[in-house]
Design a protein that fits this description.
Elements (H helix, E strand, L loop, with lengths): L1 H35 L11 H22 L7 H7 L2 H32 L13 H4 L1 H19 L6 H5 L10 H5 L7
């Protein structure tokens, strides 16, 4: 049952990320064409740049939960392993996860209040409420909260690519252009 629910949430998240990225790329391309390659009477949309910037908020908050799912968020594993005895490392990680969950709960609460408070505030160049973009914060954090709760309960994300395939994520999964810029000795 949990797998089905998670697959639905994941499909919505990925579809949202793809849709937002498609709009950003399409709108950006149209803006460039209208700005530099069109006759003088055609101008870029006055609201285009603003919409693209605000859609990036959705992109960041939706994609952040994918990072949590695959355990690719910034972590202090090296520092934790240096400072704590091996038998304490898992306890420290779980404690940090609890702190993250509490912080996400607070962000969801205050983000929802801010979104509701700004329902009548409109964007400057187009008649769209700014709350549509503020909503990315509580929605994205709710996805993060769900993923971190699964990590807290199961010790690691039960639906991560590593868990689903039974394989570790290796250097082969990292694109070549990122490997080339990695300093020596960093894994």
């Amino acid at each position: 049952m949990l797998r089905k629910i998670y697959k639905l949430f994941h499909a919505i998240r990925v579809t949202g990320i793809i849709a937002v990225l498609t709009v950003i790329i399409t709108l950006g391309t149209v803006q460039i064409v209208l700005r530099y390659f069109s006759p003088a009477q055609l101008r870029p949309f006055p609201w285009g740049d603003e919409i693209m910037r605000l859609l990036n908020i959705w992109m960041v908050f939706l994609a952040a939960s994918l990072g949590a799912k695959e355990n690719t968020h910034l972590s202090m594993d090296f520092l934790i392993k240096k400072l704590f005895k091996p038998e304490r490392v898992e306890l420290v990680k779980r404690g940090a996860t609890v702190i993250v969950i509490v912080a996400l709960g607070l962000i969801i609460y205050h983000g929802t209040l801010r979104t509701i408070a700004n329902t009548r505030a409109m964007l400057q160049n187009i008649s769209i409420s700014i709350s549509w973009f503020y909503a990315a914060i509580p929605v994205g954090c709710a996805y993060l909260l769900f993923d971190y709760l699964l990590i807290l309960i199961y010790g690691e994300h039960p639906f991560s690519r590593k868990k689903e395939s039974g394989e570790e994520i290796t250097d082969e999964d990292i694109p070549e252009f990122l490997k080339e810029n990695t300093p020596e000795g960093v894994k």
